[in-house]
Specification:
This is Acyl-CoA dehydrogenase family protein. Its cofactor is FAD. Keywords: FAD, Flavoprotein, Oxidoreductase. InterPro entries: Acyl-CoA_dehydrogenase (IPR050741), Acyl-CoA_Oxase/DH_mid-dom (IPR006091), Acyl-CoA_Oxase/DH_mid-dom_sf (IPR046373), AcylCo_DH-like_C (IPR036250), AcylCo_DH/oxidase_C (IPR009075), AcylCoA_DH/ox_N_sf (IPR037069), AcylCoA_DH/oxidase_NM_dom_sf (IPR009100). The chain is α+β, with helices and mostly antiparallel strands. It has three domains: 113 residues, Butyryl-Coa Dehydrogenase, subunit A, domain 1 (Orthogonal Bundle), CATH 1.10.540; 107 residues, Beta Barrel (Butyryl-CoA Dehydrogenase, subunit A, domain 2); 151 residues, Butyryl-CoA Dehydrogenase, subunit A, domain 3. Helices cover 49% and strands 16% of the residues. It contains eleven helices and eleven strands. The strands form four sheets. A four-stranded antiparallel beta sheet has the order 4-5-9-8, with no helix packed on it. The protein has a three-stranded mixed beta sheet with strand order 3-6-7, covered by helices on one side. α3 crosses α7. The N and C termini lie far apart (52 Å).
């Protein structure tokens, strides 16, 4: 490997688990990267089930969640999820992928014992996928990066709530067994758990997008008078935005972990190619224009890794980590975009083919710069914090 992954400050238990995940992904999952069941809207359900069965047999299903229901620390989780990301299919196989990983974290923190038994236990076992219904179509004037614009409503009706609205970019809705639906009530934002498929949750279409690693793709969904029992509300009425923050910081960071793993692998492929490919009497890597790009990759990969572990330590210290995860999301996604772009450039024509995963990683990282908040929204939020802090300092 041309990049040495961090091992300091991580327990022996977590390191051993991470090593097992890496071996499993490299030896068992990677051969599926050219499987014909990979499509424009992600791996097929058949392929997903096959990969999860292999992970289950290897004892690596949802490896970051322990047998007693506990969770690895964020630093330990980073060691595991980075390695699961060494293949675009690794997070799917090990059930560490989005949106499931973030949804499991949220349910573990907020759900009632009954809801955990009904939904979370099946998710941890890899028996079903989930979806998170928050973003709304721009043409409706609904919520995107600004969730306060939410138009989806929920109205109490006896011991039930009735939910109505439209959602978009809903990852994995097609084929999911459970959904977390955000809607607005008089009390404020609320979250509900719904069994899927449901006749009142209709997929209008699955969009064609630049990325293709997530089963079910990204859907536009109509929620038409969905009637749910009150006990399927997640937590308390009006607390939906606060719960979204509980989910958001770790979920942003998990994205960084997984895609860091993918870019480490893309870098390995580029290093291998440029050492073997000859041009003008010597290997490509001996040409400074190529070798320097790979050297820059090493620096960006290490800086991204350090940012991941720094943010993980902040979350492990008990902080909410919203600001830190914003910084990590921007810094890591932008660094990994540079890495993926250089890998593709170094490999020339081979880089833009589907013969390796480099082309896919490039596409996936480009999408990563947008989802969970585009770079510009995070910078805007950070600038607002700088202004607030300055104003507070001027008026103690």
């Amino acid at each position: 490997m041309s990049f040495t992954m961090e091992r300091s400050g991580i327990s022996d238990r977590a390191l051993a688990l991470a090593d097992r995940v890496e071996t499993f992904v490299r030896e068992t999952v990677v051969p599926f990267e050219r499987d014909p069941r990979l499509g424009a809207h992600g791996p097929s359900e058949e392929l997903s089930k096959e990969l999860k069965a292999l992970a289950r047999d290897a004892g690596l299903m949802t490896p970051h969640i322990l047998e007693d229901g506990g969770h690895l620390t964020q630093r330990e989780t980073a060691a595991v999820l980075i390695r699961s990301g060494l293949s675009p299919l690794g997070p799917l196989a090990c059930h560490t992928c989005a949106p499931d990983e973030g949804n499991m974290y949220l349910l573990g923190k907020v759900a009632s014992p009954d809801l955990k038994e009904r939904f979370l236990s099946r998710m941890i076992a890899g028996e079903m996928r989930s979806a998170f219904f928050m973003t709304e179509p721009a043409e409706d004037g609904g919520a995107g990066s600004d969730p306060s614009m939410m138009l989806t409503t929920c109205v109490p009706d006896g011991n039930h709530w009735v939910i109505k609205g439209r959602k978009t970019y809903i990852t994995g809705a097609d084929g999911a067994g459970m959904g977390i639906v955000m809607a607005k009530a008089e009390e404020g934002a609320c979250m509900f758990l719904v069994d899927l498929p449901h006749p009142n949750v209709r997929i209008e279409r699955v969009m064609n997008t630049i990325d293709s690693s997530m089963p079910g793709g990204h859907a536009v969904v109509t929620i038409d008078n969905l009637r749910l029992p009150a006990d399927q509300m997640l937590g308390d009425a009006g607390e939906g935005f606060r719960y979204a923050q509980v989910r958001l910081a770790p979920a942003r960071l998990s994205h960084c972990m997984r895609w860091l793993g993918a870019c480490i692998r893309a870098h390995e492929i580029a290093v291998n190619y440029t050492n073997r490919r000859q041009a003008f009497g010597k290997p490509l890597i001996d040409h400074e224009g190529v070798g320097f790009m790979l050297a820059e990759n090493l620096m960006d990969l290490k800086q991204a890794e350090l940012m991941v572990y720094w943010c993980a330590d902040v979350l492990d210290g008990g902080a909410r980590g919203t600001v830190e995860s914003s910084m990590a999301k921007v810094a890591v996604s932008e660094a990994l975009m540079r890495v993926a772009d250089r890998c593709l450039q170094c490999m020339g024509g081979q880089g833009v083919t589907g013969d390796t995963i480099v082309e896919q990683v490039f596409r996936e990282i480009r999408a990563f710069r947008i989802y969970d908040g585009p770079t510009e929204v995070h910078k805007w939020s950070l600038a607002k914090k700088l202004k607030r802090d300055w104003t507070k300092a001027q008026n103690p």
